[in-house]
Structures are given as C-alpha cells and as structure tokens.
Fold this protein.
Amino acid sequence: MEKLLNIVKNIKPVDIIIITGVIIALAVGFLTYKNVRQTASKQIEATSKISFQVYIRGVTLTGGEIPLKSNEKTFISIRNVPYSNLDILDVKAERKKTVLPILNSKKVMVVEDVSQSYMYDILVTLTDTAKITKDGAVVGGNKIKMGLPITLEGQNYKFNGTVSDLKVMPQTDDDTFHNSINTNNDV
C-alpha cells in the first residue's frame, strides 16, 4: 500500500495531462475504426459537375461592352481566397430599372432608369466539379451556397458578387465510370 501511495505522490500534473491525452487519442482512434466517428474523406458522397450563378449588382460600365462573355474563363476568389479559373456558361446583363406608377391606375410599369444609364446588374453562370457532401457542394474547400461572396476577375475587370443559385448537374455514364475508377484507385 505504501508503494502505491509513493507512486501517486510522485505523479505530477503534467504526467496526468499526458496520460489523459493518450487515453483520449486512443478513444477517438477506436471510435473512428468502428465507424462511429466519420473522417472527412468518408463524408464525401460523390463528385459531380455543378453550375452556380453569381449575381453582381450595380456594375458601372461606360464602355458599352460587358467584359464577361459566355464560353470564356474567369478567375474566382471565394471569401477573398484565390481558387481557380472556371468556365462561364452564360452571362445576362440588364441596365438598372425603376418602377413608375401609371396615372389614374393601380398599375405600375418598369422602365430603364435614365439617371443611371451606365449602371448594370449582371448574372453570370459558372461551372465546376464539386465534392457532394451531406451539407452541399464543396469547391476549393468551401461550401457553395446561396449568399456566398465571390469575386470574378479577368484581364480588365474585378467584380464582387454573391452566389444566387446552385444546381448539381446529373451524372452521365462517363462520369459514373470515372468516379468508379477513382474510387477503386483510392483503396
């Protein structure tokens, strides 16, 4: 009994912290091994093509030409972190509009705002390959969701916008074949 008391007296707080850390690490490892706890790689359900729209509000363009064009590439930054060049599927630009009431009526009409003749709202559709998880599509380590701030940058422009729509494109037979090859190579 005295030997046990001497051992307990000689244990320092640092020793207790180290022993506790090792026990916790072993417990987490055991739970991961028994599939109670999922690792990040097991949370990915699929890899798929996605398309998402970026809404850019209030762009001033005096040159008369929209610098973003379909079938070209644009470099994007997600939350001010550079990501990659993505393909532009579609670009829609409209001049600012205003609502005018029609006299002697309860109706209104929408017309171009002549006081802001160089102001445009632009909707850009982009495409990329994303990892699909339970929480949504992940691109460059970021979940792509509506409201996410994105910067589009090209040779002569840099626009800030937000994601306004997201669609996961259906997989073709070729995509399924490539995913099964990638899955087999990971094993």
Notes: The radius of gyration is 27 Å. The chain has four helices and ten strands.
